[in-house]
Prior knowledge:
There is one protein chain. The chain has eleven helices and eight strands. It has 277 residues and is of the alpha/beta class. Strands 1-2-4-3-5-6-7-8 form an eight-stranded mixed β-sheet, with helices on both faces. Helix 4 packs across helix 6 and helix 5 runs antiparallel to helix 6.
Amino acid sequence: MAEILANALRFHVQRLPAAEVHASDGAEGGRGLPVVFLHGLVVDNLSSFYCPLGVPLARAGHEVVLYDLRGHGLSERPPDGYDSRSAVRDLVALLSALGLDGRPVHLVGNSYGGTLALHAALARPDLVAGLTLLEPPLSGPWVENMVDTLSVAALSLEDSRVPAELSSLRLRKAAKLTAIADALLNRTTLIDDIAAGRTFTPADYAAIGCPVLVICGEHSELVPGAAELARHAPWCTLRILPGLGHDVLKEASGVLRESVLAHAAAVSRAGTGALIV
């Protein structure tokens, strides 16, 4: 575990070194691009990626960076700055602090982390060589639904005794996640920042200059937004996993791992960071 100071905030970061992989193993000698993970909102953190994707990518020859987003997990929780622009600034500052600002990276984002990854690719195409987006919420209606859901959750947690009751039952992990959710939803600008966020346009998608893999569950409400991205982005592949809903990261770890590893390898082969334009 490490604390890294970036953009004047302390971030909890896990960094996995690239294993040395030989050509006979079907990889390129540990020369894969660095892979940086962006997790989802509120109760999510870097741990959701660590075993299913982080470790396999490191073993396949990629340096892996996992971190808790601003206010999440063990990272510092300021009262504001939960908009996408601040998230991109956090990411860029973190890459610089880790010595990775001179090398394009492959971003893997789950749920809202996928949205942030896409914002990063548009804002700093020089730093983003490839994208893997797992169930990314991209459309306007999603923003409205999410704001409503978070607002209801905030009300239910305000002055709630649930964290204390969970602690008394020795359910420490659940108590901690509930306390973090309460702090984020009721003591920061997170909900307002998401509500004020700009939604993507076809012109945004057309401007993406790197290869993109989007993975969604067949029954996910996010499929239409992902399909629109696939229609307009020049190098985008959409993969629909049959029988699944939103949580593909937990429900399809094997299939997901194979797809993500293959895409990361393809992006690396495209020029060890050279953008496809």
